[in-house]
Structure formats: C-alpha cells, structure tokens
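Narrative of accomplishments. A recurring question from our advisory board has been how the design workflow behaves on a single, concrete structure rather than in aggregate. To address it, we present the structure tokens for one chain from the evaluation set, followed by the sequence designed for it. No filtering or post-editing was applied between the two.
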C-alpha cells in the first residue's frame, strides 16, 4: 500500500504545482488554493509514505471534487454543457476519494512488521520483473473497463496477486479459485471469475495462463518457493 501512496504522491505533487501556477496566473484564488492543497498532500506522501497517506489522498481528492462541482459559481456566462462536464468530473473525483478512504479501512488492520514488509516488497519487485510469457509460475488476467493487467505469482506456499491500484494480496492455495465462464470474441482468452477469500473479480485470462493456474491449483506443476 505504501507503493500506491508514494505513486499518488508524485502525481499529486506535480498536478498540484500545475494547478497552483494556473490559479496564480489567472488570478483565481479558489483554484490556487486547490493546487496548493494537492501539492502539499503530494509532498507529504512522498516524504512520509504510510497507510495514513490514504486519508490524505482521499480527503484532498474529495475536496477537489467538491470544488469542480461548484466551480461554475465563480465563473460568469458559463455554458450548461461546461457545467455538466465540471460536475461529472467532480463526482468522479469524489468517488475516487471515497475509494481511497475505503482502502485505509482495510490497510490499517494489516500487521506492521518492518522485516516482513521489506521481505514482501522484495518478492513483489522480483515478481513484477519476471517474464509472464515464459514463466510457468505466473498467470495474468485483465479486469475492468480499461483492461487493467493483474498478475498472479504461483508459489509453493500460496499465491501473491498484484492488482489494480498497486494492491497486493496474499492467498493460500485453498482460498483462491478461478472459474472459466466462456471465451472472448476471438477465442484467444477465457472469461473468468476470480475468487480470493472475500474479493471477487471478473475478467479475461489467456488460455495458457488459465491452464497454468489449474495445474498449480491441483499440485500438478512445480511451484516456485518463496525467497528466504
């Protein structure tokens, strides 16, 4: 989760600096204030990345969303279509902010063991660099409207999932299931439902990767041991 906070920190710092510069150049004080809030939140999360940064991310994103929804109040002779776009953009930001706050509710109960976290981060970096095309201990699948690529590392002790928004999940072999639900239009991928304990996802998976997962699930293929 710290990786996600750090990445959004960079995004917030750069975007905030741009918005602040535009607000000062206009000059438009409300816009400058939003830019300053974004920049401060981004710098804070870059300097002190932690799960508490999710609160900072979520709060600032909700604040900017509210500003976008109300921006038309400060602009004269604005067209109705422009108001609609601002409101839609603001609502998207508010929903995004609420999702970040929801992540905090889950992350705050995670164990805070520095050695275990450092070991997991090393394993995640190694998993991210491996070639999914040739490595039989990796299975990938895509989810969502934008077909985000997710990765499963298939280990002897269980699986490690690298999911959207930089989320990482560890699952026992008995707690993860992937069910085939038909093929895609071109027949190159399989529509799947993925169950990871309390998380359910739907997406698409290459047929070869689905076969890898099935063989690992049944214990029919060699599994990579976790690094010591």
């Amino acid at each position: 989760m710290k990786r996600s906070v750090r990445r959004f920190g960079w995004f917030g710092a750069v975007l905030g600096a741009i918005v602040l510069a535009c607000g000062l150049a206009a000059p438009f004080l409300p816009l400058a204030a939003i830019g300053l809030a974004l920049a401060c939140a981004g710098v804070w999360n870059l300097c002190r990345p932690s799960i508490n940064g999710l609160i900072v991310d979520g709060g600032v994103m909700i604040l900017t969303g509210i500003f976008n929804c109300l921006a038309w109040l400060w602009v004269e002779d604005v067209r109705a279509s422009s108001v609609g776009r601002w409101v839609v953009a603001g609502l998207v930001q508010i929903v995004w902010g609420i999702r970040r706050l929801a992540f905090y509710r889950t992350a705050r109960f995670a164990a805070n063991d520095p050695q275990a976290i450092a070991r997991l981060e090393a394993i995640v970096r190694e998993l991210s660099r491996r070639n999914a095309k040739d490595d039989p201990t990796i299975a990938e699948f895509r989810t969502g409207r934008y077909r985000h690529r997710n990765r499963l590392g298939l280990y002897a002790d269980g699986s490690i999932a690298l999911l959207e928004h930089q989320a990482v999940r560890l699952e026992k072999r008995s707690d993860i299931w992937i069910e085939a639900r038909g093929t895609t239009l071109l027949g190159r991928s399989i529509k799947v439902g993925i169950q990871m304990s309390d998380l359910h996802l739907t997406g698409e998976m290459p047929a070869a990767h689905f076969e890898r997962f099935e063989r690992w699930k049944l214990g029919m293929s060699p599994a990579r041991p976790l690094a010591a």
